[in-house]
Amino acid sequence: MPERLGEGVGVARLIGLIGCTLLALSLAGAMMSMAWAGNSPAARQEPLPDPLTLTEALSYADAPHPELDLVRAAVDSARAGVLDAASSSGVRSYLELTPQWVNPSSDPSRGSIDDSNVRLLLTKRLYDFGQTRALTYSAKAMVSAQRQLYFNARQQRRLEIIKRFFDVLLADAHSAFDTEATAYNYVSFDKARDRRKLGQISDVDLLAFEDRYQQALVKRTESQAAQRFTRTQLAVALNHPDDLPDNLVRPDLPQLDHPVPNYKTILQEALKANPVVLALRDQVRSAKEKIVAAQRQDRPILEAELEAAGLRRESNGRNDMRATLNLHIPIYQNGLVEAAVAQARAQLRRAEAGLASVRQRLRTTLLGLVEQVNNLKAARKAARVRTAYRDLYADRSRSLYNLEIKTDLGDAMARLTEAQWQAAKVDYELVLTWAKIDALTGKLIATSSKETAK
């Protein structure tokens, strides 16, 4: 009896050793995950370049960001779906350890008998009439759909960064205009105070000059706040919320010279390459495969099973090795198949309706963008004429100021700065419109490598 108990304790120790090993592996995996998280790019961010170019800003479009991480998680979930679908046809193995001692009723004098056993069981689905294949195809289609949505998310990140980058440049240009206007109104107000002391103007006239100066001062304060706010928005878009960019570089914009796009041409490109359209097509394909899989749930399933066993107690009827073929034939499913088919068909209708809706919106959105390009090109010509006029007017005012003939140089410089800000606003809107067209037609948004120092 002590010998048998000792052997039983040995089996128990073996089971305990296996449990300790699994626990150690789990702890090691957790430590490796923590180490990886500590070395990840998100954990040790490098500061933003100074000055910051648009090309450098766009390089952060694929860096870790909450919005991008959400879509990436959906891709990982879809990949897990493929593994789950394929796992039903793979080999499955089970190890059973059963330490037990029994007291036989036939011979109580023998005491406890070691009746421990160990079983290794292998199962493999051989054939299920295409159910697993349909589920796998459906899962793979969902992976493709999520990848397209991930690409679309990357495009949206680029659009956001471009917009925020241009917002900073426009805020700086507008602040320069407000600073010029404030300086001009202050000089006018200061001269008006001298003229009031000489009795040349009334108190009402002096207050009019002061009012214009105070209004200009308020606008300058607002524009300075806009500079800080737009930089905060850009820093958040770059996932560097505590690292506000100070100096930005004005980019070279080759898109400004592109001709107005042909609506029918870009519409065909969008219908073929738009990532949302492609994603919905994949979702339609996935739903169709799910219908096939659901319809085949009532088909037979053929499985193979192998078993190897080790028993402590000797028995004439023991089987150390066993090979079996199992054929499972469903007889009554209680509406399970009908419910699965109905749900898959509802998913198909949703995907098809979404695809039709996106196609319709593409038509109107692209038409609006084409018209916007046309309008902005006309506005750009007008802005260039206005800037040229204000430039020449400022030169003339500077010459007359030097000759002490006319003293509106400050106003002329303010109006020139305003014209430059308005021209830059039109240019940036045109570039952003082209970027939206690229995003809708499935082209990766990029900018020129040439950039001009601010």
Give a nutshell description of this structure:
This protein is an alpha+beta fold and 454 residues long. Helix content is 66%, strand content 10%. The longest helix is centred in the middle third of the chain and has 67 residues, at 131-197.
Estimate what percentage of residues fall within beta strands.
5-15%
| Cα gyration radius (Å) | 37 Å
Query: What is the count of structural domains?
Result: 1
CATH superfamily: Outer membrane efflux proteins (OEP)
Mean pLDDT: 82
Main sheet: strands, sense, barrel: 4 strands, antiparallel
Instruction: Kindly provide the name of the CATH class.
Output: Mainly Alpha
Element-level helix/strand string:
HHHEEEEHHEHHEEHHE
Number of helices: 9
The strand order across the widest sheet is 1-4-6-7
Uncertain stretches: 1-25, 30-43, 448-454
Helix content: 55-70%
CATH topology: Outer membrane efflux proteins (OEP)
Question: Which word captures the global form?
Answer: elongated
Distance between the termini: 92 Å
As an assembly, this protein is single chain
What's the CATH architecture name? Up-down Bundle
Helix/strand class:
alpha+beta
Number of strands: 8
